[in-house]
Automatic annotation (TrEMBL):
Keywords: Golgi apparatus, Lipid-binding, Membrane
Family annotation (InterPro entries): GPP34-like (IPR008628), GPP34-like_sf (IPR038261)
Record membrane topology: Peripheral membrane protein
Subcellular localization(s) per the UniProt record: Golgi apparatus membrane
Lineage of the species this protein comes from: Bacteria, Bacillati, Actinomycetota, Actinomycetes, Pseudonocardiales
Domain of life from the UniProt record: Bacteria
Source organism (scientific name): Actinomycetospora chlora
The name this protein goes by in its record: GPP34 family phosphoprotein
UniProt main location, coarse: Golgi
């Protein structure tokens, strides 16, 4: 049965319609020619922020001013539930956000997200050679995209929102806000990077989206993403192998 979520969209491919927002961030940042997903060793902060955004939009997490509290809706996804539990384990105080999302938990966030893409059949683990020996590296760099057509489709959906001038729906808008704050817009390979960057900034300000989506972006999404990435600024969870 499909997972009910505030960030579903009919625009995504049929293979990825039920991805959570953190899974979708990792997915669209993948290499769309099917090569190993080395880019996915980087955005731990974006994945955590994406999970928190989805939890807030689904009312599984509440913003109570100086702290986060558990909401009335139980997370319907184990990855989101894990993030919520970690965030609330020490009271959910915003002042302690760095302790909740950095260090080993950030690395675990990458691993768990990558595992989900493998479980869904969207990617697979592959050995590689290191100094002539076969080795299975940790985290995302061991993955290769299997559903390349689906990835082409989904990246095109995001690219269209960045290159065009039509309103972005909720699911695409949330992803664009995350890419904007994470400075990853150019990784979607837009036609005009300058235009796409300005467009992403506008969407992150609540423009070019339906009114209700704009309100969510300004009230919940942009502040949450900014807070998470600020908490992670001084912490390097894991480096890219690119």
């Amino acid at each position: 049965m499909p997972r009910l979520s505030g960030v579903r969209s009919e625009l995504w491919s049929s293979r990825t319609a039920d991805l959570t927002l953190p899974e979708r961030v990792a997915w669209v940042l993948g290499d769309d020619d099917g090569r190993p997903l080395s880019t996915l060793t980087e955005p731990a902060g974006l994945l955590v922020a994406a999970a928190m955004v989805e939890l807030l939009l689904d009312a599984s997490l509440l913003d109570a001013g100086t702290q986060y509290r558990r909401g009335p809706v139980e997370p319907g996804d184990p990855l989101l539930a894990w993030v919520a539990d970690g965030l609330l384990a020490h009271g959910g105080a915003k002042a302690d956000l760095q302790h909740a999302v950095t260090g080993p938990r950030g690395a675990q966030m990458i691993r768990r997200t990558m595992d989900r893409l493998v479980e869904r059949g969207l990617a697979g683990r592959e050995p590689r050679r290191v100094f002539g020996y076969l080795a299975m590296p940790v985290f995302g760099s061991a993955l290769r995209v299997h559903e390349v057509d689906a990835l082409h489709h989904d990246r095109a959906v995001v690219r269209e929102a960045l290159d065009g001038d039509a309103e972005a729906d909720e699911a695409v808008a949330m992803l664009v806000v995350l890419l904007h704050h994470g400075r990853r817009v150019r990784d979607i390979d837009p036609v005009d990077t300058g235009h796409a960057t300005r467009r992403a900034r506008a969407i992150a300000d609540g423009r070019h989206v339906p009114l209700g989506v704009a309100q969510d972006i300004r009230r919940l999404v942009a502040p949450t993403v900014g807070a998470v990435l600020a908490a992670l600024t001084a912490t390097t969870v894991i480096g890219s192998e690119r």
